[in-house]
């Protein structure tokens, strides 16, 4: 998809590291101007510089994606910096694990409401031919005793994606979802679990037919496809990217 996105303007919410970073860099490598947001200033600026080094407009802002006001302020700022908007990627996660108020609040406020709020802020700027890509998880598709809030809210993201696609079709805006499996990258949860919880890490690895964790770039490529003209007749879909993890070894 070399230069597939020349002239396009992209916002990646939660775009400073891991999957979000790879998505942002993928669009930039394809010629798009990119804005990213996240909380951590260090990784955010590092990724902004990587985007700029690809010769495109790079914008970044520190945003708490659990805060509605900050999202409402960020999106117009990003649109102005980019000169418009063609693609919104909702990637942020609060990773709510525990089945208690804190766990549910973490997933609801970021995994769900940042998608809703980010979309509402972006839609007035999107033209026919634009698209939204939401990031869910294979946790949405199976029961979990470790992360019930995370899985349930990611399932809601899939459902909302289909509803968004139906609501926005008349405006010519496509909406799709990507559900990654276990993805490993420096500083990410699976790299940390390799040492902090090797039993869980190895058990998860044993359930992936290819015998390895996924890479952020492998998720990004599917996001790029869904946002591209090659997917012009694809909307309302949730695509699993897990190396067969759901079907087992």
From TrEMBL:
Name the Pfam families on file: adh_short_C2
GO MF assignments: oxidoreductase activity, acting on the CH-OH group of donors, NAD or NADP as acceptor
Give the transmembrane region(s).
Answer: none
- List each coiled-coil range: none
Check the record and name the SUPFAM superfamilies matching this protein: NAD(P)-binding Rossmann-fold domains
The Gene Ontology biological process annotation of the record reads: fatty acid elongation
Family of the protein in this entry: Belongs to the short-chain dehydrogenases/reductases (SDR) family.
Q: What is this protein called?
A: 3-oxoacyl-ACP reductase
